[in-house]
Amino acid sequence: KAALYENLDEHTRVSFKDVAGLDEAKTEVMEVVDFLKDPKKYTKLGGKLPKGVLLVGPPGTGKTLLAKAVAGEADVPFFSISGSDFVEMFVGVGAARVRDLFRQAKEKAPCIIFIDEIDAVGRSRGKGAMMGTNDERENTLNQLLVEMDGFATDKGVILMAATNRPDVLDPALLRPGRFDRQIMVDKPDLKGRIDILKVHTKKLSLSPDVNLKRLASQTPGFAGAEIANAANEAALLASREGKKGIEMKDFEAAIERVVAGLEKKNKVIN
Ligand code: ATP
């Protein structure tokens, strides 16, 4: 079921201007973009490029978006899979999937392989499994390590992965030549939230009373995904009432809804 290959055409293509805030993270991944555009320029002097970039940060902060933007900016194919997809797989399927993913990617290089929620498959080995048993997740992780060691970056395949639990990852994943770069993708500050609001209200019809700066100050602790969600909710609320433009109070009602949703979610977790 998991679609491995996402062909980001002109409608779904993401660029850096779609990623608001995250200036530092963008600067850091710029190097990857540059490399994917012209791998030879970098390897001519014999240097080795990073193979794997780990994006670390809370849910909804734009890690997937940033990885897609790297592919978009470099104009290369984007292969993605979620670590949690592997967990449900039958014996042997996870490892075969990993092999298949790398084989396809090598054929399309230069390109990006993105593994979301890598912690689902990349937790430390040897924990939880009974003595002597080699559980399916470990097989998948081992295959991933084998594949990472088996390809040379000069082919132009760059691995990106996302997690909000870097602490549980198997140290083998973080060794040099694997995910040896970590980039923080944090929740936005006030300015970041203003920028994210700008991106997500660009195509909306706003009434003149809308003040994005004030809305940003009403959304402390929101991740980008929650801000995007609130903007869309505001548009729906205003449409339902047949308004010509989305008003400040629609945004405020939408923000309340998102906050209520978050509180509910936290209750379930705690
Ligand atoms: P998860 O860890 O839950 O997979 P994530 O960090 O990968 O989350 P995304 O899936 O990239 O988050 O973000 C979800 C959506 O939220 C994006 O598609 C986008 O609409 C919006 N969003 C999140 N962060 C940003 C941002 N910095 N700028 C603009 N939009 C953002």
Notes on the structure:
By secondary structure, the chain is α/β, with parallel strands linked by helices. It contains eleven helices and six strands. Strands 1-3-4-5-2-6 form a six-stranded mixed sheet. Helix 1 runs parallel beside helix 3 (63-74), helix 5 (93-108) runs parallel beside helix 7 and helix 8 crosses helix 10 (224-240). The longest helix is centred in the last third of the chain and has 22 residues, at 248-269. The mean pLDDT is 88. Adenosine-5'-triphosphate binds next to helix 3, helix 8 and helix 10. ATP binds at residues 57-64. This is ATP-dependent zinc metalloprotease FtsH. Acts as a processive, ATP-dependent zinc metallopeptidase for both cytoplasmic and membrane proteins. Plays a role in the quality control of integral membrane proteins.
Labels describing this entry:
270 residues; alpha/beta; six-stranded mixed β-sheet; 11 helices; binds adenosine-5'-triphosphate
Please specify the SSE layout and strand pairing.
Elements: E1 5-6, H1 23-37, H2 39-43, E2 52-56, H3 63-74, E3 78-82, H4 83-87, H5 93-108, E4 111-116, H6 119-122, H7 136-150, E5 157-163, E6 181-184, H8 190-201, H9 212-217, H10 224-240, H11 248-269
Parallel strand pairs: 2-5, 2-6, 3-4, 4-5
Antiparallel strand pairs: 1-3
Bound molecules: adenosine-5'-triphosphate.
Adenosine-5'-triphosphate (ATP) binds at residues 19-22, 59-65, 116, 162, 196, 199, 224-225, 228.
Family: In the central section; belongs to the AAA ATPase family. In the C-terminal section; belongs to the peptidase M41 family.
Organism: Prosthecochloris vibrioformis
Subcellular location: Cell membrane; Membrane
